[in-house]
Design brief:
homodimer; about 325 residues; alpha/beta; 8 strands; globular
Chain lengths: ~325, ~325
């Protein structure tokens, strides 16, 4: 058995936030409870964003209050600012806060309607207020490229990473928000960040709109990364690529790594069972492949005519 | 600029043979002529199989007679047996024959209705008769696993490869016929075959029903492989995985390798233009992603509201 790989399931946050149809709270709670029993290291449950901005996740506090927490699974929530952090702490507190901003100025303005400096200050407030009581992770969006600015220099990713590390943050998620990363870039940035920030737990967050999602997971794994975000069925995605795949599918990524002999800690049969229910839950097809094709190890029966041929061919 | 990578476009053979609706000969010829101008090293035009077995390719001779051959592009055809070879040579002869059999006995029986030994003998006849006048390539199906038998030992792939090399064959295509390969397996088998058969041009043929297609291309490239099959739009596929992706999409694979700095010789803008016409030609959506999401380098406009924010944020 090779290295242990840790998965953070983000479908109910990053996946659902793009959906147009509200998933009822009961069904969210049931889905998270099912995912909790599949062996994920972490689940990003919801987001304490304003209900106006993301109506789909307006029930964040209720979901956090109602889910059954499985020991060994870390339950995290996305926190946009101090107000969101306070709301999260008034509900059943999560095991971790996930704070988010973009490395690209233009993307931060487009997505969060403020400059990176203002985002940083807002997140700094959260860290200073709650850093002693809740572990902090920061997700750096567009770390591999911005759909409006284009290339994002590695040094910019390193600079913003360092600023958060200087505030005491020990978890960083390096996000390929719109699926612009290619495997050599992943290899280079992962090696650079690990070398410069050895004290940090690095998680890689990939999307698949150009088909490179699992190639990037492979490249990151080979570069020594052991923590990944994934979204059930590949749900989620990006408004810039309508019709294309969204996040990498957790079950497809886990299937690949299992096949390669990594220990993901996941009960893949149980996870595929959960994944099969997802299209009904969201009301449309999803992009995950293994649900359709089966695992490599799922063999097909030999037809009678072939058995007859086998008998005579011998 | 890194290594040169060579692509063989198989959509009009491996892609079309799975389609239920006949693509008219005029449209096949027009598509191949368009693909010829995109920079492919090779195009697998059609198959001289019996028209009864694959009605879609019943017009093989007419297609070969009518396409405009571009210098520098090798035009190859699939040849199942001596009769097919004779038919192919009566039309405008191709630049190469592609012969095919499975490494798995059960798959060969299911797919070709004969034992591997009988397939080998039939192909040997073709090689002995035409080997002096036409270069021969052999595609070894199920080299990475059989959907009925399961694992296929590397030694079996090597053994059948060696038998064809002993007949003078200098081109082998190692096929992951039903998408069972994982990247480490690809790395290992590619290194083994290159080491044992240094005189052979190895082409890798991947499918994507479990999302690993481009990860396997990456692994093969890193292992030193420079020749790949690809199918426009990811057309083709496998009856064992309904709804899942088929072959790897040529344009998605080429997009990834271009992004990584490899020289594929392909005009990707022209190829994407051709790919955009494919759903209309076959009457359904296809799985290629880059057509939907655009290339990494295709930037999106900055909205006026973000421009206003940018101005004040400065």
């Amino acid at each position: 058995m090779r290295d242990r790989i840790y998965f953070n399931e983000v479908v109910t946050r990053d996946g659902f936030q793009m959906e147009s149809r509200f998933v009822p709270t009961d069904q969210k709670v049931a889905l998270i409870n099912e995912l909790s029993r599949c062996g994920f290291a972490q689940i990003e449950v919801t987001s304490f964003t304003s209900a106006k901005a993301i109506p789909m996740l307006a029930d964040a506090a209720e979901v956090m209050d109602r889910i059954t927490r499985v020991p060994g699974v870390a339950y995290t929530v996305l926190i946009p600012n101090l107000k969101g952090a306070e709301r999260a702490m008034q509900a059943r507190p999560p095991d971790e806060f996930n704070l988010v901003m973009s490395v690209s100025e233009t993307h931060n303005l487009a997505n969060l309607r403020m400059s990176r400096e203002r985002s940083f200050s807002a997140l700094q407030e959260v860290i200073e207020r709650f850093g002693a009581s809740v572990p902090m992770n920061v997700s750096l969006s567009t770390s591999f490229g911005c759909p409006m600015e284009g290339a994002v220099p590695y040094q910019e990713v390193l600079r913003w990473s360092q600023r958060f590390v200087d505030l005491g943050v020990r978890g960083l998620t390096i996000c390929d928000t719109t699926g612009m990363a290619h495997p050599d870039q992943v290899d280079q940035l992962c090696r650079l960040l690990q070398e410069r920030l050895p004290e940090v737990r690095l998680t890689l967050h990939f999307h698949n709109p150009r088909g490179m999602g699992l190639a990037n997971v492979l490249a990151a794994t080979k570069a020594g990364i052991t923590h990944f975000d994934g979204s059930l069925g590949g749900l989620g995605g990006c408004p810039y690529a309508p019709g294309a795949s969204g996040n990498i599918s957790s079950e497809d990524a886990i299937h690949m790594l299992n096949a390669m002999g990594y220990d993901t800690g996941i009960d893949l049969v149980a996870l595929l069972r959960v994944a099969r229910g997802l299209p009904l839950l969201v009301g449309h097809e999803v992009s995950g492949q293994v649900v359709k094709s089966g695992q490599i190890s799922d063999l097909h029966p030999v037809s009678q005519s072939v058995r007859d041929l086998l008998a005579t061919a011998g």
